[in-house]
Amino acid sequence: MGRLGSAVTAKTAAVAAAGALVVSGAVGAGVWALRDGPRLAVVQRSVSVSVAAGGEQSAIAACQSHEKALGGGYAITGTGFATSSLFVGDAWLAAAYNPDTAPATLTSYALCVNAKPEFLGGVGWSDQAHAFHDRRNKVTATGGALIHDLTTEGPFAEAARQASASPSCPGDFTSLGTEFRAGRTVTGRGVAPVPLDSLTTKSVFAGDAKAVPYAALNPGTRLSAGVFPLHSSDNIVRQTRIEDPQPPEANYAVSLRPICVRLKAVSVATAKVSVAAGGTAGAAVSCPKGKLVVGGGFQFPAENETGAAEAPTRFFGDGWLYAPTDAPAAGGEPSGAEVKAWHVTGRNQQKAGLDYSNSVWIEHSDRETLTGNGYFDTHGRGPDDQELRVAPVPDSQSLVASAVCAKIDAKPTEPAKAPAPPSVSRPELPHALDPGPGTPDGTVPASPSSSAPAPGASPSASPSAPPGTTPAPGGPNSPGTPTQGGPSRPGTPSQSGAPTRQQPQAPAVSIRQPSDGGQLRRGCEESFAGSARTRPDDRPLTDPQYTSWRITGPNGPVTLGAGASGRFLVPLLPDGTYKLVFTATDPEAGLTGSAEISVRIVGCIR
User: In 10 A of CB 190, how many CB atoms?
Assistant: First the structure.
């Protein structure tokens, strides 16, 4: 604060008018403050929804109109894990599955910066990680014998070697993180969600400014209990046989896409904590002074899976490692808070001391005597069992949290100022329009949407949106993209006198897709399209911040997505008829309109 005296000179008044000074007290008080102007900051915008027991749900967090979404994250209170985390328009969608018998809460976060950094265009869904995989160092043949199973032949043979993926950004673009969405490995087979055990960003080498995202799934293999003879016990610890058919978890896959932005002084900060078997632990990573948190991730590096040839791997039944929280702020922190650190909470569902079992059938010294199954353990299970002497599940595993730190070379933006109230000398009355064709009430029919975005709309609402504002999965058009058409037609003024300003009304809202009475497939992505226009000035409303789609379920409204159109995940509701509601709010008038139709939810075969 700087006191400038009680007298305002002509020079001082000129400086104040130029915006260098602002009044901090009452007019004439003579106290002024130097205005620093806006500063760059990354904040989290969040929204939370309930995830029913055994169900799946999505939530969408949007940035404000003067902000740009850099990416996002998710947090889950209770049991559950994310199945998708990606851009929809310039907002962030997170979907989660809850395998427990008690409800959970999903929070979706968008990292929003008050600037417009440069995103790389044309980035596609290029890499896919599969849940199905076997031992990394498996031996499939020894002594002339071949182990025939799903890892050596059949539809899963290639997928067994693709449990991880590493999409990256070219040139001088930096990857802030990874979008991912649920998929399946082999068509025609059942699928069930599997949690990620790695979704992190790493530096290629020390001091490198290029961050590369990395994703891996928990193992989806289940070992066979069947008997198969071997001619030799050589390399016995690296020979396995896999069940056929596999459980539906083994058919799970995720598609990946890097978020590529041009930034300065990029580095990756990490923190490691120990997560006890059967327990949880949290980690928070902050960035060095002068750098912003622009992304992040996590990893469960299982040391016992690598190294020696006899190192065991994690199989179904051993318990899962996954992170129920991967978010820019601690769960429960109010929306709009500045991001100071990247928070990760990991859960270790391994059971300490659990035996790692291998389904090989060992031929002992007597070639006519077959012993029982071999075990990755420290003792034999029968009088003839061979002791493989491999460590069991450890008492704890490490969780590594990572934060992408960078400087943004862009000017900070400010919120749009509210329009000044009109100066009137008498009350304004609604202006009567000449009746138009097909409008008995004298109003003008809504025209097709203008190709220009509505004032205050997010930059991503245009068809030339940068890749950070990528389309919803499976669809060519991102939510929030306005439909193309001609300019709106103004109403014809009355001949009785000069036109006067009309009072604002709630937006005119309609649903084009799905049709009334149409079907939506539970657990699948479906197309939604609607129209929302302000009244009376007939401007299109497409910003995801002011539009939303909801289905009224047995336990209340369920949010599907945001934007005038897009592909959204249909919630896992029972078969039946539900109300689908599309809502839009005029940001200037603050008035809300909605359209409602009936839809029927049926099963979805993925």
Answer: 14
Please, what's the b/e burial string for 449-463 (b: 16 or more CB within 10 A of its CB; e: otherwise)? bbeebbebbbbbbbe
Going from the C-alpha of 553 to that of each of 58, 422, 528, 584, the distances in angstroms are 14, 43, 18, 20
Q: So what's the pLDDT on residue 523?
A: 77
Q: Helix %, strand %, coil % for the chain, to 5?
A: 5, 40, 55
436-446 pLDDT, tens digit each: 333 333 333 33
In this structure, how many other beta carbons lie within 10 angstroms of the beta carbon of residue 136?
Answer: 12
Report which secondary-structure segment, H or E, holds 11.
helix 10-17
Residue 381 host element (H or E): none
- Closest residue by Cα to residue 40 from 102, 106, 117: 117
How far separated are the first and last CA of the chain, in Å rounded?
63
pLDDT in tens, 238-267: 788 888 888 899 999 999 999 999 998 889
Q: Is the entire prediction scored with pTM above 0.85?
A: no
Checking if the pLDDT of 479 tops 50, the result is no
Sequence letter at residue 128: Q
Length of the chain: 606
Residue 155 DSSP code = T
3-state secondary structure (DSSP) of residue 397: strand
Instruction: Reduce the DSSP state of residue 360 to 3 states and report it.
Output: strand
CA distance linking residue 95 with residue 89, whole number of Å: 16
Structure tokens at 43: 């904040």
Cβ burial, residue 118 (10 Å; 0-12/13-18/19+): middle
Mean pLDDT across the stretch 424-433?
A: 32
CA distance 156 to 500: 70
What are the pLDDT digits (tens) for 322-336? 888 899 988 778 899
pLDDT for the residue 486: 29
